[in-house]
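pls read this stuff:
=====
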Amino acid sequence: MVSVWIYVGVCAATWLLSVLTREYSWVDRIWSLVPIVYVAVFAGAAGFRDPRLNVMLALVAAWGARLTYNFARKGGYAPGGEDYRWKVLRGRLTGWRFQLFNIVFITVYQNLILLLISLPAYTALAHRTPFGVADVVATVVFLGCLAGETVADQQQWDFHQWKRAELAAGRDPSPRFLATGLFRYSRHPNFFFEQAQWWIVYAFGAIAARSPWQPTVLGAVLLTLLFLGSTRFTESISRSRYPEYADYQARTPALVPWRLSAYR
């Protein structure tokens, strides 16, 4: 019940701030923070004495710290740090249509996903079984995905810093988008590792319940669908800016890095 009230409060706060500031990235700004609070609520309900819940909290906190740092260095918390995609979308959904989208999708739906992806911690609370080998494997895989996302984001950061320097020097950067490093294997390796981490959080709940058939899988499913939609929208913008991006799309997997790209 505490988590539900947190959800209601966060929805109200992010919607009100979007109306007052005319910026629509407030859910983005709390994205890396609120799941930590939700998981902490469930770990706290066990008195912080359940090993599995404590590990889940530590892993989600590490995920949140890394994502918060990456978001901050890109200017996400600064005034005017709104996601560029919302500006594009406002050009397509004018007037009341965008405001309805803001309430239903940006505020209510995205905050609901943040609650749902955290609910495997509730499953772990309801099934306080011993911490075992499967939990250790899940922890190692989570940390591997966290490292993968860190590397992908750093490669993207370095590329954009180089690109900004080239433009400032009056040169046309070539290439115009990142297709090296982990981005040779996937067009969005950071998205892939992000989703994988939350599937592993779901796995912790399934391990605790000793069954994969848990309703809390809904959070991971909806997060994946959100990323699929976001990827399509982001790439439609990239194609409009860089015609050569279509060739990169044809040669490189969108998310799952299952083959080496032949793109140059």
